[in-house]
Write a structure and sequence with these properties.
By secondary structure, this protein is of the alpha+beta class. Helix content is about 25%, strand content about 25%. The chain contains eleven helices and 23 strands. The strands form seven sheets. The chain has a five-stranded parallel beta sheet with strand order 1-5-6-9-14, covered by helices on one side. It has a five-stranded mixed beta sheet with strand order 16-23-22-18-19. A hairpin with a 2-residue loop joins strand 12 and strand 13. Helix 4 packs across helix 5. The chain is globular and about 60 Å long. The two termini are about 40 Å apart.
């Protein structure tokens, strides 16, 4: 069962696309969403219910997608779906045929409790069909592959809705088990994070989402000048204290069982590393200012989820089950090293393509820029390492736009892509020579060029 993250499912309203698969046309997808924004905003006090507003999830988003002011860019799920079908020989489930590959699109606006209950019902239905399709499948169980918020949806289904007994393995990829400062920044600062001419104001829409509140940090992250405090201990401008309290209670319900991951199934948390990641925050002039350090230490992360939040509270972070990937949040599900590792884990065969030890690089690029500006990418290389690097600018799907060699400046390496056209892009940073590629862990960042015209 593949469970995507926030923004990772297409939405139709009364049969008309509102948040749709883009096939690379990200600007048009955002504009389509903008025309529907008032109708898609949730009513105050929605809680764990679903509004009768005609919105239905249709399919998992296959392509690059981003909604500035709500969450970070992601490359889509086509690669992991194709990998599961080809490598694991999983049979896609359809309305007419029971299958072993199930996809769970969901209305990501709504509470993770609501979607967790929906997931539990869908698993029971689909698993029953698969078990009944052949006598050799009567004892089949479920393996969850979950990206980002999808891991929280699956945890609710497993922990609170009785799915633990039919679960074989839970894999969470970049899941903010303890929240993300990015969610705090998006909710408080709103669209002010986007480029100056960006006219689509999603601030009130974002603040109406129970799901986004449930991604708020659940550890002491607010620097109040006298130590760190939790978000529910700090007055936050323009946010609903009731929604913050409800989000805290959501996580407390999940964390109440301190050993939930040892209840008869295997748990594999996967998180990105070595990327500059907001970990703490301070409030200045009514706006959130994010910081990459906590107690003067940079613990890194995947650019969205900090390392300390990528595993559940109480989970042994130094355990052998934690898998570390040098890549960014939105690119984790397509990371070749991770897919190779999962192949070995899920098929019990030796990993075939991991290669020699890697040089872990950290990549930074603005997720949203204004048309006419340059896409700038900055790369940090571990001390003592000297490797030639290049940045490749691709359209989602792999169409190459151009390649730039990175130049060393002040201890880091940087490159700029001049005035690219509007749309979504993936920036692949890798070794510039075959020998360098054999030791450098490739990292993919995503960015979105917005053109108001």
């Amino acid at each position: 069962m593949i469970v995507p993250g926030i923004l990772g499912s297409t939405l139709h309203k009364n049969g008309v696309p509102a948040w749709e698969r883009s096939a690379g046309a990200v600007v048009n997808a955002v504009r389509t969403f903008g025309r529907s924004i008032r109708d898609l905003q949730l009513p105050e006090g929605i809680g764990d219910a679903a509004p009768d507003d005609g919105v239905e999830p249709v399919e998992i988003m296959p392509d690059f997608h981003v909604l500035p002011g709500v969450w970070t860019p992601a490359r889509g799920y086509s690669r992991v779906i194709e990998w599961a079908a080809a490598t694991l020989h999983a049979i896609p489930s359809t309305d007419d045929r029971a299958g072993s590959l199930m996809l769970f699109p969901y209305d990501w606006r709504l509470s993770n409790r609501y979607n967790g209950e929906r997931l539990a019902r869908e698993v029971e239905r689909s698993l029953s069909r698969w078990r009944d399709s052949h006598r050799s499948r009567r004892d089949a169980q479920v393996v969850f592959l979950c990206h980002s918020m999808g891991g929280l949806v699956a945890r609710w289904a497993i922990q609170q809705c009785g799915l633990a007994e039919v679960t074989k393995r839970l894999v969470t990829i970049g899941t903010p088990h303890r929240g993300s400062v990015n969610a705090l920044t998006q909710l408080v600062n709103g669209i002010r994070k986007g480029p100056a001419p960006f006219a689509l104001d999603l601030t009130q829409f974002a603040r109406s989402l129970p799901s986004l509140h449930q991604l708020l940090p659940q550890y002491a992250c607010m620097d109040a000048g006298a130590g760190l405090r939790r978000v529910d201990e700090t007055p936050l401008p323009d946010l609903s204290s009731a929604m913050i309290a409800d989000a805290v209670q959501f996580h407390r319900s999940l964390d109440a069982d301190a050993q939930w991951w040892s209840r008869g199934f295997r748990f594999l948390p996967v998180h990105g590393q070595k990327q500059d990641t907001a970990t703490t925050a301070s409030l200045m002039n009514g706006a959130i200012v994010a910081h990459s350090t906590i107690k003067e230490r940079n613990e890194w992360g995947d650019g969205t989820v900090p390392t300390l939040a990528a595993t559940p509270i109480g989970y042994p972070v130094d355990g052998d089950a934690v898998f570390h990937v040098t890549d960014q949040h939105g690119s984790l599900t397509g990371n070749s090293g991770l897919l190779d590792h999962l192949e070995g884990v899920l098929t019990a065969n030796p990993v075939q393509h991991m290669g020699p030890p890697r040089v872990a690089i950290s990549v930074s690029a603005e997720p949203v820029i204004e048309a006419g500006s340059d896409i700038r990418v900055t790369v940090a290389v571990p001390d003592g390492e000297t490797v030639p690097l290049e940045a490749v600018l691709n359209r989602p799907g792999g169409a190459r736009v151009r390649t730039e060699r990175l130049l060393a400046t002040n201890g880091t390496m940087s490159a700029a892509f001049r005035s690219p056209d509007a749309g979504g892009y993936e920036i692949v940073v890798r070794g510039a020579t075959p020998s360098a590629r054999s030791v450098v862990s490739e990292v993919t960042a995503s960015t979105f060029v917005w053109d108001e015209q």
